[in-house]
Design the sequence.
């Protein structure tokens, strides 16, 4: 583990102790907290956390992040903290309205997974002006955010690219790959792309590359069909897919054309894991959602209570609008058939029974997943 990852791992572990530390400064010291003038530091455990997640196409937000954050907020506030939730369903305008509603409802802090990092900046400033601190969650929102937690997204792309090159071996010289990046409105997508290019460029020819609108599997499917038509099915040796949802659409197009090549992914969605079990998808990136969700809750509770983030946020990240944002970046893991047991099963993300339904039982038995 490199120095940066050790620092991050320590930050995650240290987060559990954060709420017991004395406050070193109030997040509300620069302005009034609410119309009543009540300070954040006076809130104690009786806090209201606004949780705004970006979409429900990707299974992780509803299945993992929402319940994990709710559970951690309750744990950190002796069951007194409340989480008010809304999902923007990939609609940036709706998310701006949801921020307005949270301000009207006088939440004490916002955890924000931005649909569009740039478009949300004005709403972040509105929250800040209302004395409501904002934790950017998973995506680095623009505007005066107070804290940020995500995974090391450049490393995610590097992990995907390295896994694809290793799988291709000598075939990397024989053909072309297709790159299916995420949405251009998601700053994470640019970081995944940056990381992937840093290891793929010069090692394999990129025949076609796409930024996939709204991360939608159907858009990835259409892009893949276009790539197959343009390049020819015998010329494609692999596909870089930035996440599992798109990988599903890509694999549908590949199968229809009679093509079987390695396809990457990300998020360890159940359908993606099942495709890895059968060999239809080569790998995914497992991002330990419990760690990220727990850190988001810890940062939010500390901010709502007017306490220092120093014990939790050991990193600093610059956004296009805000410098040196206190941050926690959580490490990621390359997921293949070989380590499903040691990651997803061990961490309680899925049970063997959830993965190995009747349709996948034979494939599970073949790789020793029982």
Sequence:
């Amino acid at each position: 583990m490199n120095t940066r990852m050790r620092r991050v791992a320590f930050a995650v572990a240290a987060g559990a102790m954060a709420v017991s530390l004395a406050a070193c400064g109030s997040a509300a010291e620069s302005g009034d907290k609410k119309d009543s003038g009540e300070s954040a530091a006076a809130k104690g455990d009786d806090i209201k956390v606004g949780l705004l997640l970006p979409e429900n196409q990707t299974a992780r937000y509803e299945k993992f992040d929402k319940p994990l954050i709710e559970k951690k907020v309750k744990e950190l506030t002796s069951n007194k903290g409340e989480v008010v939730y809304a999902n923007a369903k990939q609609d940036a305008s709706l998310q701006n309205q949801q921020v307005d509603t949270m301000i009207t409802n006088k939440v004490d802090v916002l955890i924000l997974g931005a649909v569009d990092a740039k478009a949300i900046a004005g709403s972040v400033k509105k929250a800040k002006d209302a004395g409501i601190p904002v934790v950017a969650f998973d995506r680095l929102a623009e505007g005066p955010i107070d804290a940020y937690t995500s995974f090391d997204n450049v490393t995610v792309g590097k992990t995907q690219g390295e896994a694809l090159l290793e799988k291709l071996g000598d075939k990397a010289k024989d053909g072309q790959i297709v790159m299916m990046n995420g949405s251009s409105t998601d700053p994470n997508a640019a970081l995944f792309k940056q990381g992937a290019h840093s290891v793929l460029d010069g090692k394999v020819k990129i025949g076609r590359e796409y930024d996939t609108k709204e991360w939608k599997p159907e858009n990835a499917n259409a892009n893949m069909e276009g790539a197959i038509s343009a390049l020819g099915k015998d010329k494609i040796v692999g596909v870089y897919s930035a996440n599992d949802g798109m990988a599903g659409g890509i694999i549908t197009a590949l199968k229809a054309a009679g093509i079987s090549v390695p396809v990457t992914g990300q998020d360890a969605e159940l359908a993606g894991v099942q495709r890895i079990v059968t060999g239809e998808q080569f790998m995914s990136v497992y991002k330990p959602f419990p760690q990220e969700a727990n850190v988001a809750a810890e940062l939010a509770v500390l901010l709502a209570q007017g306490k220092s983030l120093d014990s939790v946020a050991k990193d600093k990240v610059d956004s296009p609008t805000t410098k040196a944002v206190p941050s926690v970046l959580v490490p990621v893991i390359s997921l293949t058939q070989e380590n499903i047991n040691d990651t997803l099963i061990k961490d309680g993300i899925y049970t063997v029974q959830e993965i190995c339904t009747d349709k996948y039982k034979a494939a599970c038995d073949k790789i020793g997943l029982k």
About this structure: The chain has two domains: 3-151+288-330, 153-286+334-367. The first strand starts at residue 48 and ends at 53. The chain has a mean pLDDT of 90.
